[in-house]
Design goal:
This protein has 2 helices and 13 strands, in the order βααββββββββββββ. The relative contact order is 0.20. The protein is an alpha+beta fold. The longest helix is centred in the first third of the chain and has 39 residues.
């Protein structure tokens, strides 16, 4: 079980806002010192134009408000991210289905489900690694219009593929030899939550699956 906190958007805003606040504060103090000195030493017969320094004061005030708003936004994003992670942590240990042809090969085989628009008579599976390289291809037994397929990582030379994320492609045919359209989903048990980069993902057998691809969630073993 693993929960990885976010280190993306919110931390970037936080890192950017602190130096900005310090810089604005230093510049504003320097501006007030120069303004005070200038007012004390101005020519009584030709006083300085108050409109100019008033406009500068307004500009400094607007910039300072923007920096404060960024800090507030950072706090809101951080709070929402923590809430999302806490909620997603409740998915750990549950079986999930994702609208994706990518599955994780880890302690358990990579697992997929399929649906077809008509009965399948024969099929060929092609499995590719994260770089797109084909690591396995061969005939498999599928029947009906829906079912499942698992790959334990076995390769043609008798070795086993490394742990990681793998993509399944199916070429299915009916009894006449015509292509059968299939839709593939991946299944597995959620074992962790990851929020790096500000995007929430669920870890399933070593593969990170985006939350927006989650289509089904059930208690493990149901």
């Amino acid at each position: 079980m693993a929960i990885t906190p976010t280190t993306g958007t919110t931390s970037s805003v936080q890192q950017a806002s602190a130096p900005a606040k310090s810089l604005i504060s230093n510049d504003f103090n320097m501006f007030l010192k120069l303004l005070t000195t200038q007012m004390q030493n101005q020519d009584p017969l030709s006083p300085m134009d108050s409109t100019q320094y008033t406009q500068q004061l307004v500009q400094y005030s607007q910039v300072e408000q923007s920096v404060q708003q960024n800090g507030t936004l950072k706090d809101i994003l951080s709070s929402l991210s923590n809430q999302n992670i806490a909620q997603a942590a409740g998915f750990i240990g549950r079986d999930a289905e994702f609208s994706s042809s990518v599955s994780g090969l880890g302690a358990k085989p990579a697992s997929w489900t399929y649906t077809a628009d008509r009965a399948i008579a024969s099929a060929t599976a092609t499995v590719s690694d994260a770089s797109g390289k084909t690591v396995f291809t061969g005939p498999i037994t599928l029947s009906g219009t829906s079912g499942s397929y698992s790959w334990d990582g076995s390769l043609a030379d008798g070795s086993r593929a490394a742990k990681g994320a793998y993509t399944l492609a199916l070429k299915a045919l009916d009894t006449t030899g015509a292509n059968v359209a299939t839709a593939i989903s991946t299944t597995g048990t959620v074992d962790g939550v990851d929020a790096k980069g500000g995007a929430l993902s669920l870890s399933v057998n070593g593969a990170l699956m985006p939350m927006n691809l989650l289509t089904r969630l059930v208690a493990s073993g149901s």
